[in-house]
Design brief:
- It is a single chain.
- With 109 residues, the chain is mainly alpha-helical.
- It is built from four helices and two strands, in the order H-E-E-H-H-H.
- Strands 1-2 form a two-stranded antiparallel sheet.
């Protein structure tokens, strides 16, 4: 009998913490203030944070970017696709949690 259970690789909390630490370090080295949101494979928040001085509003935008990137493309690629057709562009403007500003990138492993 075939095994019908599909195993899915998931991002661990430890790996997410390391990623967040590296992002904050890189941002600090460049004089940037950033917020970061890391989602699991089902687009649920695994970890999020913002550097000192970053508004909670920016964290909310980061959540939307992460959700959009979880669809499988960078937010820039998502925007380019949605902008290519008027119907899709209209739909993009009317959906919660979709964000086409650059910065959201999917993580593959």
């Amino acid at each position: 009998m075939k095994n019908f259970v599909r195993k899915e690789t998931t991002l661990t909390t430890e790996a997410a913490l390391k990623m967040m630490s590296h992002v904050f370090e890189h941002a600090g080295d460049n004089g940037w203030k950033v917020a970061i949101v890391i989602l699991d494979a089902s687009a649920q928040t695994l970890m999020c944070g913002r550097m000192d001085g970053v508004s909670h509003t920016i964290l909310s935008i980061a959540e939307d970017k992460a959700f959009t990137a979880a669809l499988g493309k960078s937010t820039q690629q998502f925007y380019e696709r949605m902008s290519s057709m008027p119907d899709l562009k209209l739909g993009l403007q009317n959906r919660e949690k979709l964000c086409a500003w650059p910065g959201g990138i999917p993580i593959y492993f």
